[in-house]
Amino acid sequence: MTDKSVYIYPNAIVETEDIGEHTRIWAFVHILKGASVGNNCNICEHCFIEDDVKIGNNVTVKSGVYIWNGVRVEDNVFLGPNVTFTNDIYPRSKIYEKSYPRTFIKKGASIGAGSVLIAGITIGRYAMIGGGSVVTKDIKDYELVYGNPARHHGYICECKEKLKFKSDKVVKCSCGLFYVCKEGVISKV
């Protein structure tokens, strides 16, 4: 690692060379050789990142998160403390898959503390998952979900304010962004 802007705590084990500028990696983190971590990320204490993991720029991974093979995390994602990823739908001891389902966390999504994400799902852009949720299916862009299993509880702006749709009309958030809801699909205008 030649980039002096990267901070790696002395007790961290970082086997990959693919760490972006201004990324901080704290104590007791282990990142395997093939993993990729983008620019300006913060990987907090006691995290593990397997070799077939791609993490974008400006991502926060709070303490106690283990990211298994097949996970793709886009830019500006927040992974709360102890978020649990899975990568094997039918696990058995000492029986290994040739490949694992891909799990996608899209740009700007936030996953609350202690949430569990079942392998092979996609979390949409700027979606928000409440802490302690169990996510078993895809989550749409801008969707707010929580519970066990995670259920739809509305839509949320990029600024974190809950959006209030009365019909398939354009809604303006107090931050100034506009959204339209057509057949349950939210788009920024």
Overall geometry comes to globular
Which strand-content bin applies to the residues? 25-35%
Spans with pLDDT under 50 lasting ≥5 residues?
Answer: none
**Helix share of residues?**
under 10%
Mean pLDDT: 95
Secondary-structure element order, N to C? EEEEEEEEEEEEEEEEEEEEEEEEE
CATH class identity = Mainly Beta
- State the secondary-structure class: mainly beta
Number of domain modules:
1
> How is the biggest beta sheet arranged?
10 strands, mixed
At the fourth level of CATH, the homologous superfamily is: Hexapeptide repeat proteins
CATH architecture tag = 3 Solenoid
Task: Please explain how this structure is put together.
With 189 residues, the chain is an all-beta fold. The protein has a single domain (7-164), classed as Hexapeptide repeat proteins (UDP N-Acetylglucosamine Acyltransferase, domain 1, 3 Solenoid), CATH 2.160.10.10. It contains no helices and 25 strands. It has strands spanning 7-8, 13-14, 24-25, 30-31, 36-37, 42-43, 48-49, 54-55, 60-61, 66-67, 71-73, 78-79, 84-85, 103-105, 110-111, 116-117, 122-123, 128-129, 134-135, 143-146, 151-156, 162-163, 170-172, 178-182, 185-188. A ten-stranded mixed sheet has the order 1-3-6-9-12-15-18-20-21-22, with no helix packed on it. The chain has a five-stranded parallel sheet with strand order 5-8-11-14-17, with no helix packed on it.
